[in-house]
Amino acid sequence: MKPDLSVKIHSLQLKNPVMSASGTFGYGPEFDDFMDVNRLGGILTKACTSKNRDGNKYPRMVETPMGMLNSVGLQNKGVEYFIHQIYPRISHYDTEIVVNVSDSTVEGYIEVAEKLNALEHVTGIELNISCPNVKEGGMAFGTSCPMAASVTRAVRDVYDKTLIVKLSPNVTNIADIALAVQDEGADSVSLINTLLGMAIDAEKRKPLLSTITGGLSGPAIKPIALRMVWQVAKAVKIPVIGMGGISNATDAIEFLIAGATAIQVGTANFIDPSVCIKIVDGIEDYLIRHKFNSVNEIIGSLET
User: What does pTM read for this prediction?
Assistant: First the structure.
């Protein structure tokens, strides 16, 4: 008998714990040629803001020896474009659809959340208060407990479905931020977003990104992400979604053992566009080999 892979994030009924990470998976249809998107536990769409954002100037992506630096800057065409042009193309998916929401002001976050609340097949939003690549808003909201609490409370007041808050690792104590948003009504937290980094062209003596600094993702950040997921999972009562350098099933299982109820796969999608399905299959194989009946049996099972 196959093990039960399903997990629950508040009202989200995930058929398995594997979700795509925002900003690395487009809106879903971009991956239709490579995998059956319906097999995923959920998809996190590209960031959605109240108005059109052109993003940062090029170059805004750099490959590093153990990961990737990006400073895309939340490029998107705004919530109205999402509702009328993107949503009709993805609403048929048989998986949980979560929209990543960002903006420069609390009012902007509220506007986007209110409009998405009306979309039947968008079953949750991920409040991005942790992006390091925008000059206004972004990470600023996620680096102080009062600001993180304030924007979470404001969105909670207008949004009825599952509210996930995405946390920044660029803080002194990420567990304090997690507790602050939990107290204001967050149903789950996801972590970690990218770490602030930079790369230099030594020959030209210039930065490789137009913004000088950017967000580092990929295998290099996995040990840090794993530690923060473990710390936050011990501190909060709401489900934790782990991410940061997950490239295969073993990585994903480590995050689950550390306390994550579900995981997101990001940079690895650029290397292998079918990696998410391979991770789903790999988790199932692990459960069979170790004679577990349900993935829930390994969540938070770290022995210390």
Answer: 0.96
